[in-house]
Amino acid sequence: MQSQGPVGAVRAMACAAPEALQSLPSFFLIGPPRTGTSWLHEVLSRHTLLPSSTKETRFFDVHFHRGLKWYRAHYPKRFGHRMMGEVAPTYFASPKARERIVQMVPTARMVCIFRHPIDRVVSLYRVKRAYGMIPWGFEEALVRDRELMESSRYASHLKTWQNAVGKDRVLATVYDDLRQNPQIFVDSVADFIGVPRFKLAPSEIHRVHGSENMTHPRSYYRTRGATFMSNWCKARRLDRVVTAIKRSPLIKLFLGGGPPFAQIAPETTLKLYELFRPEIEELEVLLNRDFSAWKGDPVCAASRPEQKVS
Known about the structure:
This protein is an alpha/beta fold.
């Protein structure tokens, strides 16, 4: 039998399990990565229905072939009146995820969070390098790891999502606003996704999963192997095993212990500012905001801390 194309596969899935489509998310926090999505997942998990025991199912971009039954297993069978959603930062720059979501959940709402692009790409590199996902130094990774630069095309992907689902169904937010006033930021997200506003507890106003203290892995191949096994377990719904290891002393065998990340070369920083400038300027128009600090404005940049990476 001839295999179906992507659109055919989506339609076949929808027709095969129409009842399952009624219990799909009504909102997605689509990132991009390293923009506070882990913090939001932690905060929203108390007020909405999100996947467990993992934050990201990667269903619509990586595991779609596993079917709706696999995806639905990440959620409880009964969830009362709580809104169902997913925090999925890798969906932002994924055409496959966008196409599948539009086909299967056309009324879902999307939340984007935009962060200073150099800060974000540095943070994403650190995480990928620390977890053994890539072996390269920073400059080489910018060339060889497509996700680093592709997920930095803020305006281009924002417009694509707006065109796909409608501007009224896409909320574009800014990471700086989250850090400056988390309560107001969360209120805006809650209003948009249809969740009653809630007050953040003092313990919830903190950074989650920052990359500042990460290092290169002690052993790249051991760390890479552990990450491979983690993904293997998640694909087989063994997320609790992965969570248990992350919370145990065993994690020190695989994460950290290597040299700290070095500073970015000044010429690399300047090159990134130039590469990101067109997207930032278009985003300024789309959001009607001034992002001079994101473009290397001398006055704004002078007050910024020096970034470190390898």
